[in-house]
Design brief:
Distance between the termini: 58 Å
Shape: globular
Oligomer: single chain
Structural class: alpha/beta
Strand content: 15-25%
Helix content: 40-55%
Largest sheet: 10 strands, mixed
CATH architecture of the largest domain: 3-Layer(aba) Sandwich
Number of helices: 13
Length: 312
């Protein structure tokens, strides 16, 4: 008991310990490695408001798009490990082989998950996945994604691999512009997380072909899953949103962030906002998210290898 008390006294005089105990004492930026208007951006802005309310300092979103999330993620990975720069990213952080997120970043919590959706411009002559496959086997069909190496991109290339289709990848600097160009007819199809697509599915600006998760979206239960089509029975790709901090950030700060996240995700208003975007709140512990994230990195590495995806 005496040793524990002495250790606590010593820790209390360490500058880092004192700083962590008082965190946050100034505004905190949350880097989103994609353009404004996408699903990650929407989730981050909801969380920034809740963090500001709960922790007594301003949390603000900074969009740093570029290189399929690489630019923003590297900016977060090189920030001072003081807890004043955070990152909210989607599953691209696990699938992008140019990133080694675990080297400089630590997972804090999984905020939410959502299926990806194949959504077509109304003029594209197909309404089901089987019809899309048949069409894309006879002629090129271009599809937009938030970037090269993303789960969205891997989904399209996997379809090409197993079905001999001619889906042609058109990468963008985030889901927002990728969806906008699909709505405008500049591309035939988009593979997107649900949040930026939802208003266009509701208005008829896009038509849903299928979701990529093995089970249907609880919010859009009428959209079939890819797994319901022959040849994709085991296919299960989801997009998810996670909170990360620099490695070496004090565990006191990390626990405070995780707790604030979990409390925010219990808020009925937050849950309603997420639900309207077809995103299911999670709020996992640091340990749970760390295990999940490592599993995702392994899954996407194997998927990229199976389709012989080359860095582009």
């Amino acid at each position: 008991m005496l040793r524990i008390l002495l250790l606590c006294v010593l820790l209390a005089f360490q500058p880092g310990f004192a700083l962590a105990q008082n965190w946050p004492e100034r505004p905190v930026r949350i880097i989103v490695p994609f353009a404004a208007g996408g699903g990650t951006d929407a989730i981050a802005r909801v969380m920034a408001k809740k963090f500001s309310d709960a922790l007594g300092q301003q949390f603000f979103v900074e969009n740093r798009p570029g290189a399929s999330g690489l630019v923003g993620t590297q900016a977060a990975a090189k920030a001072d490990p003081d807890g004043y720069t955070l990152l909210i990213s989607d599953a691209n952080i696990a699938s992008n082989r140019n990133l080694d997120a675990l080297a400089d970043l630590t997972p804090v919590t999984q905020l939410a998950w959502t299926p990806l959706v194949l959504a077509a411009h109304p003029s594209l002559q197909c309404t089901t996945l089987a019809e899309l496959l048949q069409l894309a086997q006879t002629r090129p069909v271009d599809y937009s994604t938030p970037g090269i190496g993303s789960p969205h991109h891997l989904t399209g290339e996997y379809i090409n691999k197993v079905q001999s289709t001619k889906l042609t990848h058109v990468p963008y600097r985030g889901a927002g512009p990728a969806v906008t160009d699909a709505v405008g007819g500049q591309v035939n199809l988009t593979i997107s997380g649900m949040p930026p697509v939802v208003p266009f599915l509701q208005s008829g600006g896009l038509k849903a072909i299928a979701v990529t998760s093995k089970r249907r979206s609880p919010t859009f239960a009428d959209i079939p899953s890819m797994a319901e089509t022959k040849g994709f029975e085991e296919f299960d790709i989801t997009n998810w949103y996670g909170l990360f901090a620099r490695s070496a950030v004090s565990s006191i700060v990390l626990e405070r962030l995780q707790k604030a996240s979990a409390e925010a995700l219990k808020d009925p208003q937050v849950r309603q906002i997420f639900t309207t975007q077809a995103a299911e709140p999670v709020g996992s512990t640091r340990s749970e998210f760390g295990d999940f994230f490592r599993g995702e990195v392994d899954k996407y590495s194997k998927l990229a290898g199976s389709i012989e995806l080359k860095n582009q």
